[in-house]
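Re: the multi-chain job from yesterday

Posting the exact lines I submitted so nobody has to dig through the queue logs.
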Amino acid sequence: MSSRAATLEAIRKNRPSGEYALPEVPVFAPLVGEDLVAEFGERLKRMGGRIAEPGSADPFEAVRERLKASKIVASAVPEIEGNRDLSQVAQPQDLADVDVAVVRAVFGVAETGSVLFTQDELRVNAVAYLAQHLIVLLDPADILVNIQAAYRRPEFGRAAYAVLHTGPSATADIEGVLIHGAQGVRSLTVLLMPRGAH
Amino acid sequence: MSADDLNLRSGASNRDGLIHPEVAKANDESERGQDGQRLTHAEGASRPISAAPKAAREPQPRGAKIRGDRPIDQAEAAERFLAAPLHQKAHDERLWDVRKKRDVATHGIPEWEELRELASAIKAHTLSRLDEYLEQFEAQAKANGVHVHWAADGAEHNRLVHRLLKDHGARSLIKSKSMLTEECGFRHYMAGTGIEVIETDLGERIQQLDDEEPSHVVMPAVHKTRLDVAEVFAKTMGTDPENDDAHYLAESQRMHTRPLILEADAGLTGCNFAVAETGTVVTCTNEGNADLSGNVPRLQIHSIGIEKLIPRTEHLGVFIRLLSRSALGSPITQYTSHFRKPRPGTEMHMVLVDNGRSERLGMEEFWTSLKCIRCGACMNTCPVYRRSGGLSYGATYSGPIGLIIDPTFNKRKYSTLPFSSTMNGSCTNVCPVKINIHEQIFAWRKVLAEEHQIPLLKQGMMKAAGQVLSRPAAYRAAIGAADSALRHLPRFAVYNPLNTWGKGREMPETPRQSFHAWYRQNRMGKGTGQ
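And the result, structure tokens for all chains:
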């Protein structure tokens, strides 16, 4: 008998007796206030992320210094021109030298300060982890109230890869000392910028 | 935000108590957030940890001695841990801090108890129809272009993954933390194959380099001090043995591991949740290493314990809200990743592993332990675990959840573990899926006693206790005798090796009078005055 058949047969034999109905999950009231942008920013900051409004003269004022200090910028958004074309990347390893990656989020979540990407926004999934720093463009209109609302979105049922980022890569595996950039990005900055504004 | 945070905001005195403040840069982005508040997300400690003086260097106490199938002597290993006060204190405080962060996080959610009920019920339902949900998951995954494999036990899992790697000509594999692969002994198996396995979670990597098992399901190296880590890294990666700064050590590991990640031919992750309706594998991590393992190499493997199934995506809206809050007190992990289809030009494999789970499903008193989502909350709250360290259990799963899972793998070897509990029930109270952990610990004691899996001394004591407890008059006589005996016996008679309760703790001060005696004297026979 194959392991598949053996496992399934053992499960059928050992099913717990009794009826265990699947409960309806009620819609819970949001834990956040009405100003979703402020709530999102507050929670993102607590998770080690940074938040910035676009500057009036230079919309990218908040991240200009970081961009200037970077040799290699991989941009997946039309608003910023990088010098590493993600559509020409043959393999993920080629992104190992990227200093800053710029990506647009599908949506944000106010409850946790998270942003969602799928393979479509990232172009090459690995760029969000191999880059030293990540800059995320988020339309303030795309902020959902909570995680429950996020999981009702269709992306999770159709994306090949979907990921919620909440702040940068972090570890405190050594004596509880918090360190950003364990393996992935050392910083994550969300720039509030409506779609198609620039 | 707590008062602690506010006090820490201003001035240089903020940095008091930090380990090596001279090494941590003033503009360190990790320590403080954008507004200057102290950050405690991920596994971060909520107070600065005071630096233990280097002069007080203390060798790391090692775990339980493994002697084949012979019963683990957890108490012996725990005694050695207790005899290392720096380690014991750091471990205890660290985990209690995490437990307190968990409390703060849960108190912030009015529907917390309702979420626990829901999670528990969703898991019970899924387990009661696990065959159907597994078939649905498999069909979905196959439709997504994923290769699905089944492994009856750990050995088959290891052989299967090894064959996959060989068939693809892989020379190295990067992996993220997975308790399932620990359970399968995957790393030990691979050691003989010539294919290098590289752990990419910092804590797990420390443990791999030190040739030790993880001591905690979420924080694998929580029993080690930074001095221990400095020693391990100096030996294995050539770092400066005198530099024990956590920033330096973590950065060294990043620089050391990154080329290995880029060169790896294959990547493997575990699985926190497997969604039946979409065929999705969900991983929850803080470091981003599971996403590197899944997104960089050409061959991608996910090892899945069959109890990880949940029916629908919407149910993640319950479990994700519970997991990290229970584990670390943060609202979510830094990364919550959903792997569904292979990247173009690459292969994605999923291995569904039974390894005793289908059998456990048939154990009337113990099947609900399969609801466990491996958050570690029961470990953080357990007074025995905090003072004895995860490695003292000599098993893949330590702490309260280990006590009820481990005997299902090997009844003889883990026969003593269910006795490593004070039965205080705190584990049950914090469990996000409402497993009645302490009741199952008690049930295991009965099973093991009936099957003669416990030592004769304990059996004799329990038999005597059983006789006394079953007869009220005998119980009262015994209590009276014990109380007066405790008052009058010399110390050597109470604190001797036959009385395990006298070890490491003082006996309670005995009351002058038992409640029963007081009640008889003051309340009985006084008529119905009230």
